[in-house]
Structure formats: structure tokens, C-alpha cells
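Q: I have 128 residues here and want to know how they pack in 3D. Can you give me a structure?
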Amino acid sequence: MPRTHQSGYALLPLSRPHDDEHVRNIEHHLSAHYDRDMPVEELADMAGMSRRNFVRRFKVATGLMPGAYLQMIRVTAARKMLEDGAPSIEQVGLSVGYEDVAFFRRIFKRHSGITPSAYRERFRPRPV
């Protein structure tokens, strides 16, 4: 059966289930504020841990380093915007926290396998 949208391929949830409440709080924070840069030191302070301990626990709990996790959230948000018919790739990149559009395109292609414009073309809503 043909798909009219991309939701069947969604990445969420991004991490495997875990019981680390401190990491879960940081995951929620990253999901709510993915459009801004968040140094690992800032996240570690929010979790009440040293940088080294935070990175170790985050990776054990989620399977990803904090930076890679943030990239996955950003790409997921960008996919949604492109599916909803966002007119500008540049604006999508800025909206999800990337000031360099070329870098955004590379990250998007690395995680999605296709460029943002090809993704938008493939999954945008078609007139009925």
C-alpha cells in the first residue's frame, strides 16, 4: 500500500528504554530546546554530574553520545518540517539550530540517506 507521508519511518523514540532519570530529564530538555547549542558541560551541570560521568551515563542509557543524540533530534524535526511543506531548506536548517546550511545538508544526508530537497520532494503532501 503506498504511503502518503513519512510517519511510518519516524525515528522516535531516539533512545532505547532506560531507567536513568537524570539522563531522561536531559533527553526531554534536548527535545524541547534542540534549536540552540548546548555544550556538554551545560548538560552535565543540569544533570548534576561531572562532564565525564554525564557522557558515560548518557551513552550507556541512550546508546548515543549527547552531540549525536542532538543531531538525531534536529534531523527528525527537520524531516517533519520538510514533510509539512517547508518552503526553504535554509530556513529549516536555521529553525533546527544549524547556521551553516551546507553543514545542515551534510548532516541531514548522513542521517537520512538523501538530501533535504530530495526528502521534501519525496515526502511532501500531494494535492488530491
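Q: Anything worth noting?
A: The radius of gyration is 16 Å. Residues 66-83 form the longest helix (18 residues).
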